[in-house]
Amino acid sequence: MPIIVPPIKCQGIKTKLIPAIKSIIDSPINGTWIEPFCGSCVVAFNLKPNKAILSDTNQHVINFYRAIQDDSITPEMVSEHLEKEGRELLEKGEQYYYYIRNRFNATQDSLDFLFLNRSCFNGIMRFNQKGQFNVPFCRKPHRFAKPYVTKIVNQVRAVRNILHSHQWIFQVADFTLTLSCSQKGDLVYVDPPYIGRHVDYFNTWTKHNEEELITVLDNLPCEFILSTWLENKYRYNSSLKENWQDKNLRMILVKHFYHVGAFEELRNPMIEALVTNRAVKS
Ligand SMILES: C[S@@+](CC[C@H](N)C(=O)[O-])C[C@H]1O[C@@H](n2cnc3c(N)ncnc32)[C@H](O)[C@@H]1O
Question: Which pTM value belongs to this model?
Answer without folding.
Answer: 0.94
